[in-house]
Amino acid sequence: MAFYAESWLTELLVALSLVVAVAYVWFSHSYKYWKKKGAPYLEPQFPFGNVYKSFVGKLSMPLDIVDAYWQLKGNRFGGIYFFTRPTLVVLDPDLIRCILVKDFWTFQDRMVLVNENEPISQHLFAIRGNKWRRLRVKLTPTFTSGKMKMMFQTMADCGREMAEVLEGPTSRGEVVEMRELSARYSTDVIASVAFGIQVDCQRNPENEFRQWGRRVFEPGLLATLNALVSSISPKLLTTLRVKSNLSVISAYFRGMVRETVKYREENNITRNDFMQLMIQLKNKGSVDSAKGGEHEEAGGDVWKLSIDDVAAQAFVFFVAGFETSSTTMSFALHELAHHPDVQARLQEEIDSVLKQHSGQVTYDAISSMHYLDKVVAETLRKYPPIPLLNRICNREYKIADSDVVLDKGTSVIIPVYGLHHDPEIYPDPERFDPERFSEEHKAQRHPYVYLPFGEGPRNCIGMRFGLLQTKVGLTNVLANFSVVPCEKTVRHLFFEPRSVILKPKSGIQLRLKKRNKV
Predict the structure, then answer these.
(1) In what order do the strands lie in the sheet with 175-177?
(2) Could you tell me the residue ranges of all domains in the chain?
(3) Which residue, among 322, 305, 290, 125, has the nearest Cα to 214 in the 3D structure?
(4) N or C: which end of the chain has fewer CB within 10 A?
């Protein structure tokens, strides 16, 4: 009996050894890709490639890529590996311009997998090719400055509500968690604008909509498995049919959108919000005042969004607008608490401008706060919400002034966080200095070294909305309170290693003091 057990164990060990040996040979072969291409590259580590630290949770992904950025510094570009997947890291601003603008159609798609069987994943951020082009044309008129003015009152109401809610904790001298504060405000804004519902998360933080929002941003084991498999091979992900909790989240948000649209249409209700614009695209194929919407389709048929298309765009509006705006707002308050001189100057501007507008936070008031614009820009420089831009090369591409030819399907990364923290571009990059964004300083920099919203035809379509939402939130807080560090404040923030969005691991704890304005 012992003989058979020993024999079985030996055979198992031999089989495992063979599997490891085959895997090692396969990985080793894959790791010759950049050397064969004649490109500068970083030596990979079996089996993680160049992303070991971020994969095991020692370092966030942006900082892992920053390490690659510094090791490749001096080159215009260089190769790394996500496990076995060859990825080009682009450092040169002129080459970045080529990829994002000049040669955009070669790099129009993102490295985001789309589940064709899940309608809510068919949104503008993820879809590719002609489908993306058509949808981008449809949605662009919904994010004009005129449409932002139309939605502004909702933001203003939510901002005023936030200031009123803060009176309680401030009067009691309580410490306020800034990410939670910003998240509740952003949830109220987006629930109203994108989904047409009132949730009042600021007074009811356990509202059902807020709880579902938390589920969207919980990484979870299955999401991590998705990321792992897709890093090795996107085709393998489809073959294995690895799933996440997206289907459950999808059912909730799609149901909500259907109910909202049905109620509005049956009761002839219209509102000045994003959902109303989506309903126009569903029923007419264009939004009011959009030029050429009815004539863009070949064959004379106007393409109209389905109800699932509407749900998908509302969902990505929520995902993109919620997390990016709330983290930017909380990072800004964190820096202002540690730079009282900057905070005082910003409050002077806010007080002066609001006085000219009868104390009201209006669209024109926010637009005329130029120092606020610099503060937000510097926050986005130091803490870019999307720290990496990624693209897929969709055909062979010869990199200018080199002999390197990228194969179709090659992944490309633009290390936004690395560019934003490069002392050759931004001297003393860890220092928070809004004056970096004076017109004089901006004119001295290459335009493609500041990329918080991307650039080119596939830049962030909701940029205006995100900036406006952040500025309205900051204005309402700082017009009424000052932010100061407290005993729970962490000066130098660490980032959540499992998040694709740049966000603090420990939260941002600050104390607010009621301002005594004359």
Answers:
(1) 175-177, 509-514, 481-484
(2) 122-386+452-514
(3) 322
(4) C
Contact (CB, 8 A) for 120 and 311: yes
Nearest to 385 by CA among 179, 105, 211: 179
Q: Assign domain 122-386+452-514 to its CATH architecture.
A: Orthogonal Bundle (1.10)
Residue pLDDT, tens place only, 397-428: 999 999 999 999 999 999 999 999 999 999 99
Q: Which of 467, 510, 464, 515 is nearest to 351 (CA)?
A: 515
Rounded Cα–Cα distance for residues 412 and 386 (Å): 15
Pairing of strands 397-398, 405-406: antiparallel
Q: Whole-structure pTM over 0.85, yes or no?
A: yes
Take residue 41 and report the two structure tokens written for it. Answer: 């590259």
Nearest by Cα to 452 from 324, 321, 308, 300: 324
Nearest to residue 432, comparing CAs of 329, 318, 336, 301?
A: 336
Statement: residue 228 has pLDDT above 60 = no
Q: Is 157 helix (H, G, I), strand (E, B) or coil?
A: helix
> Taking a C-beta distance cutoff of 8 angstroms, is the pair 112, 126 a contact?
yes
